[in-house]
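#structure-requests
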Amino acid sequence: MTDWRSLTTSFRFPTGLLIDGTWFEGSDSFEVISPIDGAVLGRVSSADVADVDRAVRAARRAFEDGRWSGKTPAERKEVLLRWAQLCEEHRERLALAHALEMGKPAREAHGVDMRAVIRTLQWFGEAVDKIVDELPHVSPDALAMVQREPAGVVGAVVPWNFPLTMAAWKLAPALASGCTVVLKPAEQSPISALLLAELGMEAGLPDGVLNVVNGPGHVTGQALGRHPDVDVLTFTGSTEVGRRFMEYSASSNLKRVWLELGGKGANVVFPDADLDKAARTAAWSIFYNAGQMCSAGSRLLVHESVHDDVVRTVLDVAATMQPGDPLDHDVPMGSVVTHEHRDRIHSMVVEGLRASGETLTGGSPVLVDSGGAYYPPTVIDSVASDTLLAQQEVFGPVLAVTSFRTEEEALALANGTPYGLASAVWTNDLNRAHRFSRALKFGVVWVNCYEEGDLTVPFGGVKLSGFGRDKSLHALDKFYDLKTTWIDLT
């Protein structure tokens, strides 16, 4: 069993900007605060417009001279596999960074997030030399070729809630395709990204192929989004910021922008479902990672005939998932990412309750004397479908419960938000499962489960949840240009 607290005494991490294979001090710096106890983990460099320009120019040179794009897919594969192996060797260090900077239990970061990172690097490394071009059957007097070419320089902006997993979901397919990357981690969680990039360089990524620029979104992110020499921008985060990246693209070079944004997922529970499994999974789907997931099951839509039984089980699970120090081995839930975010969650709960709802558990910050940012599992019953808690993304461990009577009402409730990332239906009626899942307007639909899947299937949403897909072979499509060549054979 890892003693996470003892590892903090020797924990060290890069603090600069990674540009063209060299660590630079930025024009400014900022403190990284741990939400565990409010302690300062250190200062990291912050990139301004000039720093971002230098990183993009380094990525452009690295792309154009072919030091990476000119390698064969098999050669790129070997680097990605070495990178995955180094992540395995440094698994505890990366997991500790994850826990210290965003408050996730270190045990979960080690067992879940690091497994996802390693597997993502391996999967796209193994996949890329299996991608083939196309030779459509056309006229006997012509030859048509459809070739996939790396798109160029990619700007990747990743969130703080899964800082390593989201970085891997962007970096692995972009680099596998032959693109070069400028990565901007969230200012709340730069440490894990810097460590990941350090291992990538050790694995054999040539200078300039992966660059990392830390800094606030309104400065560093905007500079990357507006840069005229970035070909593709991939972003995971809030819908509000996603809109800004679309505006940055429109006002600069019309770079392609791929967005994975917010969500307001629902677990829809019918009376013929396995109610115990449905309730326990519904609780886990909102309380895991302290509810800080765009795909979180933040709404529980339950048939009125089984409402009391399902909610009772949800409350039983909530009682076992109270937050605590993420460095303790058995803690079920850690902190939220910052004190500001904790206060935002609480203000949304207070505001939402003015419109409708009854708090069954939670509803106020806890462990305040620890200096950390802790918010407990919160269940609010009888939430009206047109109110804040049913419509807006809280991004915390807050579950809004609403009852329904008919299948038609349940479908209207489930689809009745501007988001469309992920949802689930719980029923043992096969016809209903097919019928209802087909009618749900979400990019991902689970039946009798939640948050299941692997790298073979795409992840992404519709409506205000964005477009484009992470994971699966479809993720590579974002980073290729298709070139059609038609040769006249007469």
